Amino acid sequence: MARIGVLTSGGDAPGMNAAIRASVRCGTAAGLSLYGIARGYAGLIDGDVFPLSNRAVGGIIERGGTMLRSARSQEFTTKTGQQKALATVREHSLDGLIVIGGNGSLRGAQWLSERGVPTVGIPASIDNDIPGSTMVIGVDSALNTVVESLDRIRDTAVAHERAFVVEVMGRESGYIALMGGLAGGAEVILLPEIPVSLKDVARNVQDGLTLGKRHSIIVVAEGFTPPDATLHSGSSAQTVCSYLETLGALEIRLTILGHLQRGGSPTAFDRILASRFGQAAIQAFIEKRTAIMLSYDGRDIVASPYSKLDEPCCNVNPEILKLADTVAH
Ligand code: F6P
CA 187 to CA 34: how far, in whole Å? Predict the structure, then answer.
């Protein structure tokens, strides 16, 4: 009976639990034995491996976070750590691993597969920056959290006639900022991928005032960098805030949504996507199709080689930014 390990690694994403649950239950139904590995690659290094029964994954589909816990393991980037991880796979006679996580975690799965450990990667990251997938686990839930937050902020922004600078996650990916901004009716959306000067941000807010808008919501992704940022210091959202304050046109407030975007009960979309990924991962092991990462193409779950990770990810569409700008005023 094949023994398959499951781990979650990197930034957690709502829906990871649903993927663990589906992997375990589809695996058990197919006659496989499933094992959990705690804290991602850190647990693989430490030999933290335990059996996962169908009952052990009960009552988790509706929970955010990950029952297996997660980590960004520095040790797994070292030779010693990597050797220990391979030793754990041998000691526990694991015939394969399901790795649930973002780009870095999937790179880890690729590394293991290149050393003879059969792996299947399931993409999960609220950043939606994994090549090949239109959506990955956690994105829809995080987006809904952002939109709900923006709705609440708008209430108070309108009441006090203020501008709010709202920082959302995404150091390198502006997907959450773009889609959250569109769905939340933001007046300005600032992304890491598309530089906009502070002057242009101010002009945009000013245009809104001229059109009779007495409030404004400016969504800033963590990784946005204004080309004229040397004028100010601090995070980009703080920089935008300070710059707008100096203009004196509107009272400005700053809200940093931070890690609350990563928590909470997964949406129906994420639960369904994660369940489908779990099932597809088990199917891949049954058919002996390993050294692959799974993706969602907008309709089906498909598989690609890990070399897909070398390709650029193109989920941030400038046309959607134009749309958001047009419908905001
Ligand atoms: O990759 C997911 C993500 O939430 C990014 O959006 C964010 O920049 C980063 O993780 C934060 O990482 P940490 O939780 O380690 O601070």
Answer: 48
pLDDT digits (tens, 9 = 90+) for 189-201: 999 999 999 999 9
Q: Does residue 127 line the site of ligand 1, with CB under 6 A? A: yes
Is the CB of residue 108 less than 8 Å from the CB of residue 15?
Answer: no
Active-site residue identified among 12, 127, 129, 270: 127
Q: What is the mean pLDDT of residues 226-231?
A: 77
Is residue 262 within 6 Å of ligand 1 at its C-beta?
yes
Structure pTM? 0.97
Probe ligand 1: pick from 126, 139, 193, max atoms within 8 Å of CB?
126
The reply to whether 127 belongs to the active site is yes
Q: Are strands 216-221 and 162-168 parallel, antiparallel or unpaired?
A: parallel
Domains in the chain: ranges and CATH: 3-138+266-310 (3.40.50.450), 141-262 (3.40.50.460)
